[in-house]
Design brief:
This protein is α+β, with helices and mostly antiparallel strands. The chain has 8 helices and 9 strands. About 35% of the residues lie in helices and about 25% in strands.
Length: about 250
């Protein structure tokens, strides 16, 4: 049996058996924190605590799912960083340095919003590894597309990478544990990639994954020997996410 994280143990102790039962304000109250909503500038949320009590202030102008992530993120700080002064700036949800307090709080938030004991069965019920699956899961767990896609790639059973690009190039990426680290995505989008057309050519999101040569995504000399699947989804006026799924077993050999 997979070992439960602190957030997942908390949910099970509270008897949570379905995503719709994850009431963040109630969970915060259980942990000694009250949630309030105010207009904030330069940050999405902040927490102030003393002894066993805390107040979490969340930007009232944020989207509902972003508010949920902010509360869960601040509860991560309350769990792991009491006594430290931290400000959570208005940054996008993205993978970070594993040792940073923000990554620790992000991981706690992911476990609280998308606990694996609920997320993995829901992900297995999806017939295909596509952005439709991401959107279905995001709706079920009331999470953002980006946070859900990161969770699905990092914790899922598919050998894939999730790559985020803006007009200035690659912003960040994350990979499934089964993808060898030698497959490091190139910084700029290849003009032959379908993602290039979505970001710069005004094309619509890819409805389904499409085959493309691996050399469009990786600069290794042997990349042109392989094919993979690519699907792109626009998350902003200047940002796209791409699921890059490895289908050739040779690419997964260490």
């Amino acid at each position: 049996m997979t070992r439960l994280s602190a957030a997942e143990r908390l949910l099970q102790d509270l008897g949570v058996t379905e995503p719709k039962e994850i009431d963040l304000e109630a969970i915060a109250f259980h942990l000694g924190a009250r949630v309030r909503y105010r207009a904030l500038e330069g940050c999405e949320a902040q927490i102030v605590g003393c002894n066993e009590c805390a107040i979490i202030t969340v930007n009232r102008h944020s989207a509902p799912r972003r508010k949920r992530f902010s509360i869960a993120h601040e509860l991560g700080h309350w769990c792991y960083h009491r006594g430290e002064r931290l400000t959570c700036r208005a940054e996008e949800i993205r993978p970070r340095d594993p040792t940073s307090p923000e990554r620790v709080a992000d991981n706690y938030a992911a476990d609280l919003l998308m606990p694996l004991y609920l997320f993995e069965p829901a992900a297995r019920a999806e017939p295909k590894f596509t952005f439709k699956a991401v959107l279905d899961l995001a709706e079920k767990f009331e999470t953002s597309v980006t946070a859900t896609a990161i969770r699905l790639v990092e914790a899922g059973r598919f050998p894939a990478l999730l790559v985020c690009h803006g007009s200035r190039g690659k912003k960040w990426f994350t990979r499934n544990r089964d993808v060898p680290t030698r497959w490091f995505p190139r910084a700029d989008l290849d003009s032959e990639s379908f993602a290039f057309g979505v970001l710069f050519g005004g094309k619509t999101d890819d409805p389904m994954p499409r085959k493309i040569g691996a050399d469009a995504w990786f600069e290794r000399r042997d990349a042109d020997r392989y094919m993979l699947l690519e699907q792109t989804f626009r998350t902003g006026s200047d940002e796209i996410l791409t699921l890059v799924t490895i289908t050739d077993e040779e690419m997964l050999e260490e």
